[in-house]
Amino acid sequence: MQNKLGLLGHIKYPDDLRRLTVDQLPEVCEELRRDIVEELSVNPGHLASSLGVAEITVALHYVYNTPEDRIVWDVGHQAYGHKILTGRREQFCTNRKLHGIMPFPSPAESEYDTFVCGHASNSISAALGMAVAEKSREKNGFLSGGENAAPRHVVAVIGDGAMSGGLAFEGLNNVSSTPNDMLIILNDNNMSIDRSVGGMKQYLLQLNTNETYNALRFRAGNWLRSKGYLADDRRNGLIRLGNALKSAISHQQNIFEGLNIRYFGPYNGHNVKELVRILRQLKDMKGPKLLHLHTVKGKGYEPAEKAATIWHAPGKFDPATGRIIKNEAPDMPPKYQDVFGHTLLELARQNPKIVGVTPAMPTGCSMNIMMEAMPDRTFDVGIAEGHAVTFSGGMAKDGLLPFCNIYSAFAQRAYDNIIHDVAIMRLPVVICLDRAGLVGEDGATHHGAFDMAALRPIPNLTIASPMDECELRRLMYTAQLPDKGTFVIRYPRGHGVRTDWHCPLEEITVGTGRKLKEGRDVAVLTIGPTGNTAAKAIDEVERSHAGVSIAHYDMRFLKPLDGHILGEVASRFSRVVTVEDGSRSGGLGSAVLEWMADHGHCPRIIRLGLPDCFVEHGTVSELQHITGIDKEGIEKAIETILVTQHKEGSITKIQQG
């Protein structure tokens, strides 16, 4: 393997990288790219982003003394090269696999991973906290290694559209007013997952600061500091004066220097030797700094360069030809997201008030279907989930009917906006939570585990989850009818269960579930697609236990609950099993327990759902088995409650299968 990898085969940790000459670094970058391409061709993951930052990754670990120096990555799908260079090359084949290395950087896995970065835009705030902690260490004399220890450097690497997130600007605002020496690297590839949008994208494309000016200013600053003319109390004033002069000369205002953050660039982010030179210059410079680098997402692999959105996470592919390998059968049911996309366009053609909103995921959620047909009625707001919700609220307040589609895990970032800017006013916003439940290999930061438990206490919300694609279409139709208020529809990642999904659009009465199967011994209550798994489990238990009869109800709505169904269950059954693909604490099972207690009923209830821990990464089927919500787990729960019932004399005979 070492011969195949060349220089990379001799690099286990960054200390090994630092033993090389600068002239050897371009070869390391090329080998790093080849290793990522070859591995991801058979073990799918996030490809294009990590290819685009190969030079940045190598230069950072070459110049900085990691892990003592801190590199804080933003949108962690950029960090595959970082993982390979920091002791995980031999384990990289386990990336995103059950019990393998994590899909995104995490301090729980490596001391080189300084912060969790599954979601975008948190790097500047986290890095500023570390930089302030370093200032405190210096001031109070508890530098690790004693008095002569070198100060710890802190670098934030933000890119792939993450600068459009509101948290990034909150961090920048604080960076400008808090003493720190941190470096912000802006990886500007004009992309998030789909093409970047908005004014910040245009600003970064047009931004140009003279390199000669920056070099002269840097040398002049060092000279003034050495002569004692540039004390900290004068520094900000001189920076403001310099910024004003530069703006006047160039007829251009720099937003970063307007915040008193020194700006350098833009530079070519793929010239690793030049990056090393620049980073060495900036490394010990005092005060906050921003280095603006232009990169190409997918750099070094032609198919990814030409179609970065497709190659963001392409699945398995042939590295030689660039052919993406599809294992889907032609008669496979469609993905839920595609049913959403086609249904949204169908509804929008019928209802002129409907508009679509998504935070940087039009392709991922299939809103691109409506976007292509009705570009003036669809809005990609960038990586800004909170803004997406409030923006939708503003449109709804003045007569439009937004369908705001956000991945469930990312909607956590918009919790206050849902409450304050939509629910309180009961605005007609349809919040579609894609990727609800377990999502698989992306792991704890991406599972849609908490939406039902988090949203259930909020007044004025309707919360529903379809069992199949036809139910999704009917719920979407219902949500856009008059006087429905704020309507939340959650559905999973991946394929559905029906090929005959294009059903008529019909209203579903809000707060009503369905009795899918009669029974007399145990009632199983499900919500969402877990109902399909439960139906198979019920069938297996009944076949294995002669004479046992199990009722099955699809609750469909978490809020409001179907009181008629619950009343029927309470009057007929002393044993109940609830199944959901969300947090067991606070979700459907908890809601059923509360309803029973409030109405004076006390059946024995087994609640199946996600446990009170962060579920790791693995395939969806593996994780469903671990968490007990697969067919086997549901069967076991039903049999457990049947045995308890038998012991208490409620069932006279159970034949073990």
UniProtKB/TrEMBL annotation:
The record lists the catalysed reaction(s) as: D-glyceraldehyde 3-phosphate + pyruvate + H(+) = 1-deoxy-D-xylulose 5-phosphate + CO2
Note on how the cofactor is bound: Binds 1 thiamine pyrophosphate per subunit. Binds 1 Mg(2+) ion per subunit.
Q: Where does thiamine diphosphate bind?
A: H77, G118, H119, A120, G161, A162, N189, Y301, E385
Cofactor(s), by name: thiamine diphosphate; Mg(2+)
| InterPro entries in UniProt | Dxylulose-5-P_synthase, THDP-binding, Transketo_C/PFOR_II, Transketolase-like_Pyr-bd, Transketolase_BS, Transketolase_C
Keyword vocabulary terms for this entry: Isoprene biosynthesis, Magnesium, Metal-binding, Thiamine biosynthesis, Thiamine pyrophosphate, Transferase
Q: Which pathway does the protein contribute to?
A: Metabolic intermediate biosynthesis; 1-deoxy-D-xylulose 5-phosphate biosynthesis; 1-deoxy-D-xylulose 5-phosphate from D-glyceraldehyde 3-phosphate and pyruvate: step 1/1
Q: Which GO terms describe its molecular function?
A: 1-deoxy-D-xylulose-5-phosphate synthase activity
Where does the source fall among the domains of life? Bacteria
Q: Which SMART domains match?
A: Transket_pyr
- E.C. numbers: 2.2.1.7
The first-level EC class reads: transferase
The Transketolase-like pyrimidine-binding domain is annotated at: 334-499
Name the positions where Mg(2+) binds.
D160, N189
Q: List the Pfam families hit by this protein, alphabetically.
A: DXP_synthase_N, Transket_pyr, Transketolase_C
Q: Which CDD domains match?
A: TPP_DXS, TPP_PYR_DXS_TK_like
Q: How does it assemble?
A: Homodimer.
Role noted for this protein: Catalyzes the acyloin condensation reaction between C atoms 2 and 3 of pyruvate and glyceraldehyde 3-phosphate to yield 1-deoxy-D-xylulose-5-phosphate (DXP).
The UniProt entry's sequence similarity note says: Belongs to the transketolase family. DXPS subfamily.
What protein name is recorded for this chain? Answer: 1-deoxy-D-xylulose-5-phosphate synthase
Q: Which organism is it from?
A: Xylanibacter rodentium
Underlying gene: dxs
